[in-house]
Amino acid sequence: MNIKERKNNKLSVFSKLIIENGKPMVSSLVVAELFQLEHKSVLQAIRYLEIPDEFNERNFAPVSIEVEKPNGEKIKESSCYMTRDGFTLLAMETIGKKSIECTINFFEAFNDMDERLKRELAKMQLYVRNAYPVQ
Fold it and tell me: pLDDT category, 60, cuts 50, 70, 90?
């Protein structure tokens, strides 16, 4: 993969991250799409992870999403948002060159999102300090 392709893949993954409760997260639908897996396989892999309940609750958030079928019908479907740690654990369960490339792109996207969030937080703190002098 050349540098331009890698940069485009990284931007594609970055654009699919979401912020939920102040944390960058990725949907199981996005993981399925980029790893070229069926979504139900990704959800099954998450369910079969042998991890403590506390880790599971912190890093995997079950959600219900609305999906439009080809005929235009909208249905509710189970999905899952996962943190970087949750994604990393799931990615460790996969093998193959495509999985490694996708995993690296996700790592870089999560890192970029973390940096953006830190910069925004620093701007807000600077604004608060300047607007409201500390006694």
Answer: very high
Phi-psi region of 22 (alpha: psi -120 to 50; beta: other; left: phi over 0): left
Task: Tell me how far apart the alpha carbons of residues 78 and 44 are, in angstroms, rounded to a whole number.
Answer: 11
**What pLDDT, on the 0 to 100 scale, is given for residue 131?**
63
56, with CB counted inside 10 A (0-12, 13-18, 19+), is middle
Tokens describing residue 104: 């690296």
Mean pLDDT of 78-96: 83
Q: Where are the alpha helices (DSSP H) in the chain?
A: 3-14, 28-35, 39-47, 53-59, 84-92, 97-131
Give 28: exposed, middle or buried? Use CB within 10 Å, 0-12, 13-18, 19+: buried
Tell me the pLDDT tens digit for each residue of 98-121: 666 676 677 777 888 888 888 888
What range defines the domain where residue 99 resides? Answer: 3-131
CA proximity to 78, closest of 34, 46, 110? 46
Rounded to whole angstroms, the Cα distance separating 55 from 93 reads 16
Query: How many independent structural domains does the chain possess?
Result: 1
